[in-house]
Structure prediction request, 846 residues.
Amino acid sequence: MSSIACCKNILLLHLLLPWLLLPHLRSTAADIPTDTLDKARNMTDGKRLVSDGGSFTLGFFSPGVSTMRYLGVWFSVSEDAVCWVANRDRPLTDTTGVLAITDTGSLLLLDGSGRVVWSSNTTTAAAPGSSPVARLLETGNLVVAGRGSGAVVVWQSFDHPSNTLLPTMKIGKNLWTGHEWYLSSWSSAGDPSTGNYRYATDTKSGAPLDVLWYGTEKRYRTGPWNGRWFSGIPEMGTYSDMFTYRMTISPGEVTYSYVAKDAGVPFSRIVLTDVGVVQRLVWDPSTRSWKTFFQGPRDLCDSYGRCGAFGVCDAGAASTSFCSCARGFSPASPSAWQMRDNSGGCRRNASLDCGSGSGTTTDGFVVVRGVKLPDAHNATVDVRITLEQCRARCLANCSCVAYAPADVGGGATGSGCIIWMEDLVDLRYVDGGQDLYVRSAKSELDEDRSRKFPFAKIVTPVLSFMFIIILVLAIWVWRRKHKSSEGIPQNPATTARPVRLRIVKAATANFSQDNMVGQGGFGVVYKGILPDERMIAVKRLNQSALTKKGEQDFIREVEVMAELRHGNLLPLLAYCSAHRERVLIYEYMRKGSLDRYIFGEPALRRMLNWRQRLDIIQGIAHGVKYLHEELSEISVIHRDLKPPNVLLDDNFRPRISDFGTAKLFVEDPDQPDPSVLTIVRSPGYDSPEYLQGDMTLKCDVYSFGVILLETLSGQRNGPMRSLLPHAWELWNRGRALSLLDPMVEPSPEMEAAAAAGSEIEEEEAPPARNSEIAGELARCVQIGLLCVQDAKERRPAMSTVVAMLSSPSSLIDRPQRPEIHGGRARPPLRVSEPLDATTTTPADAT
Prediction:
């Protein structure tokens, strides 16, 4: 009987075991996305937490082509947009990692042997008697708290930023505890470990500002907070309809943060890149890519202290090496300035009069208009007084060298007071900048000069003569306008023709929003219809961009485009410069830009078959070769080659467009050095040397190589910059066919080859992709890799590129493996791990 009873018990146990284990199985299942982690449910590699609204994901990932595993948070729509990394300095070497939570609310990241790789170090329970849980919020914040809506948060990832600032996060300092919040860069685009760059809010001065540090060295400042934005980033006002900026100055903390104004605002983030660039990125759902709204440093004048004390940097003044002295000052070392060494700065031409203790002074102030205010580490701030009281306070203090309003939100001149007591450092002109009042001796003031100058004897005759000249010119211009044709030519034979504004307005229905087809940082593109039913594209410069630099960009594009004649360049038909309107008129390309067809929806990607993609690549190559080598006496470097700037006509023929950043290279030793230019960055397409200010024709070659590889693969060379080494690894292993966009339909040649029974790579390629096509693709990839070599000397000229693309028998050098700009080399690719096809990159810099 005992044996029978034993058998019955065992049978009963087998029947009941699934029911006993069911609650545990349910608690550990992760098939249904959830935002919460508790004690009953650990998270293993391959499982994820997803925020309640689906905006953010927490899980394990490997950046780029790295094999290391990290725990992090990223945007669900863009998996390469990693916002926070837990174990950034202690990666896992395999996929055995586990995330768990303890009774005290500590998050523990364990490796396969049970060792703690990372911990949140939470030592206080969320609430007495409650079981703490970790939850991923819709803001991207990972928090630890008790259960329930009113539970106290005992730990949050927002208090431990990585390289990204999200809405409602903050950087700055808790003045009571001493805790600081700041961004720290990744070591490289494929290595999240703590890098050399740090972006923090300077809380030591009375006028807070954000500073980019490289170790202990200042690299870039935003300029002091002026109540509306940082004085060196006035473009913040152009997207203030989307975000609210918060600078908190209180006894408890000094912090900066921002929030989206409403739920309809797209995703956004501020990122400190591994090469020391701060970017504000906004997600564009229509193109599924990140748009760059701002990046700093934006140009050479943003380099900290470039022109020394009392020097002023002007990004549009290359002829003076960008530096000049404030009025009343001269170079401290003229010989050094002649050799383009401006670090010594400037010194006063005349001594100040401090009143000899009498309380009176003959000193005054010279206004330096439209600048980023100088470094405020030696400044004092009083927000309670008026600007006039600020002036009087500065005059009464012999140590005061300059003053400015502390808050520009309350009127044209502003209110409050910032006073500088020492040298003015890191001063630059900026569009929409503030006015700075620099203390000057009496001999340097406008009033004193006007009394000494013989106005009646000299100025009056000169003004009379100028009036006559202006009158004659006005009559000549009026006659020329009335003699010129008002129409827009079909194709300009020599130069683009100026047209009247009323013609442009009629064609675009007075710049109607219904006709708007595109928008960038400095202008809007409209579709227009002429009376003869021709369609045109009208590029209208924004009113906010009608600055000195904006005018120069407009003139440059007219001058460059008006003389270019090539089938792979978008022709400029006409332009308009009237009142405050600056307009460029081009042929209208119905197909739009190349990026739509290589990164867009599958239906659009299928529209370009293998042969069409090769034709597009060859067309772009011919267009760039024409710019570099086929113009008489000059060469043109485009400086901004990328798929959004390649338009397609009705036959999918590529037309290179957007020459607003182009630069003419004249073979003349007396011309100024063309490499000394404002840097216009397009992340993912700029060459390593261009990031350092070295601009040559080989910069365009690099950008072309990136476009070639993107066109073949349908993958972006995004912020991770992982496409280039990935393509090299596949090519080096003889697997270039694996790089081809899977949406590519077979061309007629491929179908014919398949019908003839050509050998097919069954594991790697879809039907009709045979060995002959694989060889052609491998050759094309090899050419692209040669174009993106890190050393510019190893990149071929565009004439060589065209020859290699056109002649299957021409010899091609073996390329070296491309590296990451400013970072370390990546580990070798594991062939079993394909590149993530969702990698994205900003399309435009603003």
